[in-house]
Amino acid sequence: MDERLLALRKNAALRGEPVLRDKSFELLIRTVKEKQPKSILEIGVNEGYSGIAMLLNSSGARLTGIEIDEEKVKKARENYRIFGVENKAKIFLGNASEIIPLLSAKYDFIFLDGPKGHYGEYCDNLLSALNLGGVLFADNVLYRGYIGENRKAPHKHATIKHSIEEFLRKITENKGLKTVVYDIEDGVSITEKLYE
Predict the structure, then answer these.
(1) How far is CA 157 from CA 35, 96, 120, 147, in A?
(2) Which of 145, 93, 150, 143 is nearest to 120 (CA)?
(3) From the CB of residue 183, how many other CB atoms can be counted at a distance below 10 Å?
(4) Which of the residues 1, 32, 44, 45 could staple to 65 if both were Cys, CB 3.0 to 4.6 A apart?
(5) What angle (nearest 5°) sits at the alpha carbon of residue 137, between those of residues 134 and 138?
């Protein structure tokens, strides 16, 4: 892994930026290396570190990102340039809830790390945008340990809990999908699309 990228990720975490945690990041990179996707969709670009890592570890890949924060989009584009991947990545600035339904492209790999309260809402459109054999990699699916039967969440987290549980139901009950949920850090799910 590129030492400069690891240093930037660490610095971002120290600044309080919501970067993908270390074990989840390692799992993301391992999965991308194994699958070698050509087309990647990233929901929640932040400053671009995960996108850069995916592009550096997948030969010939191109990335489409969605990010709502204009300052983060500027920073991500700057980081893409620093790492020489600016010609392989484009970012849509805006609300993922509005952009995802409009996507016409298909993707080999989708990395979902956007607003947790919308995971359930995004799910059907993301699965439609996923190529056969493609992978949907989602972070935060065990959200602070609140997810699961008989788990209580504070009232302020109830919408997020409901959305993630809806998302998990959709990706685990669909016979055309193979899903593994990893109980690491804040929880990661990896879903492979076996058939339509």
Answers:
(1) 34, 20, 15, 11
(2) 143
(3) 10
(4) 45
(5) 145
Token pair of 158 as six digits: 């109830």
In which domain, by residue range, is 167 found?
A: 3-193
Tens of each residue's pLDDT in the chain, 196 residues: 678 888 878 888 778 777 888 899 999 999 999 999 999 999 999 999 999 999 999 999 999 999 999 999 999 999 999 999 999 999 999 999 999 999 999 999 999 998 888 999 999 999 999 999 999 999 988 765 556 666 665 555 567 877 888 899 999 999 999 999 998 888 899 999 998 7
- CATH number for position 74: 3.40.50.150
Tokens 């609300």 found at: 95
